[in-house]
Specification:
A alpha+beta (about 525), B alpha/beta (about 425), C alpha/beta (about 210), B: Fumarate Reductase Iron-sulfur Protein, Chain B, domain 2, 4-stranded parallel beta sheet, C: about 210 residues, FAD/NAD(P)-binding domain, two-stranded antiparallel sheet, 12 strands, about 25% strand, globular
């Protein structure tokens, strides 16, 4: 369950509430380990919540990294089974434009097939029939099993399963040190609180290097910033990729009700990782490149720009972000650095989160002398269980779309439960209550990650006062509503300001007029 | 320059200010209706993702376009809702009783054509009887308070060909007349008044090669495919005809100008500017002196002008108002533009009767007040370009409603 | 159609100006593209919480004899050869029907109401292409603090000392601006009303 503090002793403590940590907590809990996950902010606060939401088929890596590609396609198929509520099986299209080469397309198809990825070449006409919005100048197209995945929901589902199998979660507490005895790691320090455990797993993305340092281990990591743009609605049904060597702004993903275009790739200093935001220059790069994929992007409203940081581990001295290993990195610090009780799991991709968790948990079990098989590949995640067929009431449909079978745990019949609070994203009071009760929500930003509150076209302009009021009530602190709202508005501003022109400036004008009193 | 904004996707120009919600007449009386913002741009984002998100409560949209008039962002909210009903809602079937009712209400020209004939007196007689009303109410679901608009015993077209066509050759300049169903089947006098005014203006009248019902009732009753077929025929006729295509009904005009392209996907750019109400065509010509109308000096009438919803959306009421003001002896009041609630065939359905009447109440009381102020010394009428507004206002207030074209015709010196 | 004055914009500034002109016995037309935020009494409230009818201000003008064009906007203007006068304007709904007045009031507001349009390259005023004061460096349009007064709020139409709108550096003698379309510090409601009154006074002088 979600707790504030703990004096228990755990088998394993996982540092980091992103997708890697969440999936690892789930695996550990399912194997019966006494598990604690510690996160300094909210779940999904780092790179896990700042990416494309693309469930890779592996096609993108087939030419350059066949091993990574194989991992992707295998995990892609597993996640479709166990996390169906988080995945929209859109399919993907790799398009070749006149300035690209059809030779590369051929090479690409062969590489995909070698990795076991279905890749079917279709004619440009057929591609335009499937996706009328793609660049009509295309000269080739290949269909692959890419999909769209909601990273927030995937993290939540893993956390919910972990909690339901006995794991504890502490949010909003930062690890200030590792407990060390005779050079071995025996737990974590959260300020004055010492929590002991037999093993500690670092799953903190780019911040892993910093935490490993506390344990006396050095990991050579390179923060690589990726900026993305969110467009107001779905422009395409499928994921659209450029069929060429990976570059800037060459993927457009239809995620939930929006389209996400990305990314850039730039090496940044560690200091920048704390406050990632997209710059105007990056926005220009994304737009200028993106319109080659889907020309309509130039006349579609940008809701906001955001940036995440990839936790790349330096395998060689190459300076460019895109060629450094994006493979899974599992570090046994006992073997590597002589530090018992410490493991780091990093690198990898959203798509391979389950595999990363399996690898880390296997290692933990080995360290603990346990032989318990991993079951995560065949057990469905919460939300992905089969639901009774039949039509849901209108105000529940968006919640079902987001949470799958978990929506049936929301109290739509309770007092005001079915009332829509956030209109763009059709979030009801019942869904807000559910998120507060089950996912440890404290702020509107937390609520946004777990429900899509305020993620829509208006970014909260219209509903945020109401959201703040309801959240404050549900949290039992009705006098905090204004504070909740102001924090949220400031947070939204970060993503709106780099794209502040046209309709986004109009929205900002409206937002300032009504909310800045 | 206004058009050169960033987003060309109309749904995204919505800033969620909810000003449309404030003016939606349906939302004010019916909580089942989600309101224009939720039904329109909000819902559209979800429907694009998955048609499963379609909400059947969209059937309550009156298609009055008041949301569009109120929108500071130029979002075509009403069109978006109509288009969603066509794209995602189930299309009506004639097989069920309500389907048959909807078909009957929607097929204004077919039913009109059958009825506006020798059997008209019989049909009118039957439709007026209490028993027929009870049957319509109970089985078909046509509200018992409604009286079917009377069918004329002769069509306008028949009269025109027999009585007026020959005389039109005397005029050098001609206009085309799209008379619409109401003037043809229910009230040929309106068509005759049109001819009288146009002739008095020095122009001849010619009918189109082929004319079909504009299809608005088909569109709103779930028979979009048929509406599209009829729209194509009309547009083809307009293309063949030279010069202006003049009309007397605001809803038909709005449908053919705005909803053909926006809702039915029928491009009309090449002819759109030629389709207009008579008053829209007449006013600038009166202003420039090209046309002069001689009005009777002994004409006396008090008129309250009601801006029908689609008239308001087109923004042409001022052309009519200015012409009515030119008539000596006509005392004009302009009513606040409120919805009468009938919305074409919507209010004829018994499940909608109460909504219709509640929506119209503000307008009805303003009309009653205007009538009271006017007194009984002179004839009093409400003027409006919409025939369904006419039925609704007459049924609800007992006060006569006239098309402005008829008022102009009556005021003309012989 | 001919009027003494045509007011473009039916928000607080436009309605204030039109009301004064009508009270002075002038023939006035108001073009109001949609409602204004002032028509929503409490900002983003649900329709149930709405305290007064949304068209209250425009209806009051209509009762005074002002011709109100709801949901219509002026989309283009014709100028005298030397650029010092607006000769006539045209609206979207009225099409080729010319609209003439002795004086025009531009009260179209800022970005929300599309009185000023912004894009990646810059900003412009869409009806008259009047001169707009703004910062060319896009990164200077905003303050990182949401709650601070934003630089973009100060951008707007340029006027001369008598309130005439500038176009291509030339004062347009019969075009006045009122309300938030103007460049300068963000306005309170009473500032906006005052600005509407000032414009009306200038127009009356002109008439």
């Amino acid at each position: 369950m979600f707790i504030e503090d703990s004096h228990k002793e755990y088998d394993v403590i996982i540092i980091g509430g992103g997708i890697t940590g969440a999936a690892t907590a789930r695996d550990c809990a399912l194997r019966g380990l006494k598990t604690l996950l510690v996160e300094r902010g909210d779940l999904c606060d780092g790179a896990s919540g700042r990416n494309h939401g693309l469930l890779h088929s592996g096609a993108r890596y087939a030419v350059t990294d066949p091993e990574g590609a194989r991992e992707c396609i295998s995990e892609n198929m597993i996640l479709r089974r166990i996390a169906s509520s988080c995945i929209d099986p859109t399919g993907g299209l790799f398009i070749t434009l006149p300035e690209d080469s059809l030779d590369y397309q051929e090479k690409f198809i062969k590489a995909c097939r070698d990795c076991g990825i279905e890749a079917e070449a279709i004619t440009p006409e057929e591609a335009l029939r499937l996706e009328p919005a793609v660049n009509p100048k295309l000269i080739g197209a290949v269909k692959v099993p890419d999909a769209s995945v909601d990273p927030f929901r995937l993290v939540d589902a893993n956390i919910l399963d972990a909690v339901r199998h006995g794991a504890d979660i502490i949010k909003f507490r930062e690890v200030t040190g590792l407990v060390k005895e005779n050079g071995d790691v025996k737990g974590v320090q959260l300020g004055d609180t010492t929590i002991r455990s037999r093993q500690v797993i670092i799953a903190a993305g780019i911040w892993s290097a910093h935490i490993a340092e506390m344990g006396g281990a050095h990991i050579d990591m390179m923060p690589s910033k990726g900026s993305l743009l969110i467009f107001g609605h779905r422009l395409t049904r499928m994921v659209i990729n450029r069929c060429r060597k990976p570059g800037n702004a060459d993927i457009l993903v239809p995620g939930d009700v929006v389209s996400v275009l990305g990314t850039t790739s730039d090496k940044v200093p560690f200091e920048d990782c704390e406050d990632m935001k997209a710059t105007s220059d990056e926005v220009n790069v994304l737009l200028n490149e993106g319109i080659h994929l889907v020309p309509e992007l130039s006349t579609t409203r940008i809701i906001r720009a955001y940036a995440g940081v990839r936790p790349l581990v330096v395998a060689d001295s190459s300076a460019s972000g895109r060629n450094v290993s994006r493979g899974i990195v599992l570090l046994d610090h006992e073997k590597r650095d002589g530090i018992k009780g410490l493991i780091t799991i990093t690198g990898g991709k959203l798509t391979t989160c389950r595999l990363m968790a399996e690898m880390a948990t296997d290692l933990v079990c080995e360290k603990l002398g346990l032989k318990i098989p991993c079951t995560t590949a065949r057990r469905k995640l919460p939300g992905s269980e089969k639901r009774k067929s039949g039509k849901d009431p209108v105000n529940k449909r968006a919640a079902v779309g987001r949470h799958g079978s978990e929506a049936d745990m929301m109290d739509f019949n309770g007092k005001g439960g079915g009332e829509i609070i956030c209109e763009c994203e059709q979030v009801t009071r019942a869904e807000i209550e559910y998120a507060v009760r089950n996912l440890g929500v404290r702020s509107i930003s937390d609520l946004r990650r777990h429900t899509r509150v305020g993620m829509g076209t208006c970014q909260g302009s219209f509903c945020i006062r109401r959201v703040a009021k309801v959240l404050a009530e549900v949290l039992g602190t009705p006098d905090k509503a204004l504070e909740l709202m102001n924090d949220y508005l400031q947070e939204r501003w970060k993503g709106m300001s780099p794209v502040l022109w046209g309709d986004t400036l109009r929205e900002a004008d409206y937002m300032h007029k009504v909310h800045r009193k | 320059m206004q058009e050169k904004n960033i987003s060309t996707a109309n749904l995204e120009q919505c800033l969620k200010c909810n000003l449309c919600t404030l003016v939606c007449p349906m939302l004010a009386v019916n909580e089942q209706y989600p309101g224009p913002k939720k039904a329109g741009p909000d819902g559209e984002r979800y429907r694009i993702k998955d048609p499963e998100y379609y909400d059947y409560a969209l059937k309550y949209c009156l298609n009055c376009k008041r949301c569009e008039v109120a929108c500071p962002s130029g979002v075509k909210i009403g069109d978006m809702i109509q288009a969603a009903r066509i794209k995602y809602g189930s299309q009506s079937k004639v097989r069920s009783l309500h389907g048959l009712r909807d078909w009957t209400l929607a097929s204004t020209d077919f039913v009109g054509g059958m009825t506006a004939s020798a059997i008209a007196p019989i049909a009118n007689g039957i439709l007026k009887t209490g028993m027929a009303k009870a049957v319509l109410h109970g089985t078909l679901g046509v509200d018992k308070h409604r009286t079917f608009p009377a069918y004329s015993s002769g069509k306008f077209e028949t009269w025109f060909r027999k009585e007026a066509q020959a005389g039109q050759s005397a005029f050098e300049k001609k206009v085309n007349f799209y008379h619409g169903c109401y003037a043809n089947y229910n009230y040929p006098q309106l068509g005759k008044d049109f001819v009288k005014v146009v002739n008095a203006a020095g122009y001849g009248v010619q009918l189109l090669e082929r004319e079909k019902c504009c299809g608005i009732a088909l569109m709103s009753n779930g028979f979009a495919a048929k509406a599209i077929r009829q729209g194509k025929i009309n547009l083809e006729s307009f293309r063949k005809a030279e010069g202006p295509v003049l009309t007397v009904s605001s809803s038909c005009t709005h449908m053919m100008r705005e909803e053909y392209p926006e809702v039915l996907g029928l491009p009309n750019e090449d002819v759109k500017d030629r389709i207009m109400l008579l008053t829209r065509w007449l006013y600038p010509r009166l202003q420039s002196g090209e046309i002069k109308l001689n009005f009777r000096q002994d004409f006396h009438m008090k008129v309250a002008y009601h801006t029908a919803c689609h008239m308001q959306r087109m923004g042409w009421q001022q052309f009519t108002i200015e012409i009515l003001r030119m008539i000596p002896g006509l005392e004009l009041t302009v009513l606040e533009p409120n919805c009468c609630g009938i919305s074409g065939t919507f209010g004829f359905k018994k499940e909608n009767y109460e909504y219709s009447q509640k929506i119209g109440e503000t307008l009805f009381s303003e009309i009653r007040e205007a009538k009271a102020r006017a007194g009984d010394s002179e004839p009093f009428a409400v003027a409006t370009e919409c025939e369904t507004c006419k039925w609704q206002i007459e049924m609800s207030t007992g006060i006569p409603v006239m098309n402005p074209v008829s008022i102009i015709a009556q005021a003309l010196a012989e | 159609m001919k009027y003494d004055a045509i007011v473009i914009g039916g928000g607080l500034a436009g309605c204030t100006a039109a009301g004064i002109l009508a009270d002075a016995g002038r023939k006035v037309a108001v073009f109001s593209e949609g409602l204004s935020l002032h028509d929503a009494s409490e900002g983003p409230a649900s329709h149930k919480e709405q305290a007064r009818p949304p068209y209250a201000a425009l209806s009051a003008l209509a009762a005074k004899g002002v011709t109100v064009f709801r949901g219509d906007s002026i989309i283009r203007a014709e100028m005298s050869e030397d650029g010092s006068q607006v000769t006539r304007v045209f609206s979207r709904n009225l099409g080729d029907e010319p609209l003439e007045a002795a004086a025009y009031v531009l009260a179209t507001g800022k970005f929300f109401s599309r009185g000023i349009i912004s894009n990646m390259e810059g900003m412009y005023e869409p009806v008259f292409d009047a001169d707009v004061e703004f910062e060319t460096d896009h990164s200077k349009w905003f303050d990182p603090d949401f709650f601070a007064t934003q630089p973009y709020e100060k951008f707007g139409v340029k006027t001369d000392s008598e309130g005439h709108v500038l176009k291509g550096g030339i004062s347009v003698a019969n075009l006045f601006a009122a309300g938030q379309v103007l460049a300068g510090e963000p306005m309170s409601d009473s500032d906006i009303e005052k600005s509407g009154r000032t414009a009306a006074t200038e127009v009356l002088k002109k008439l």
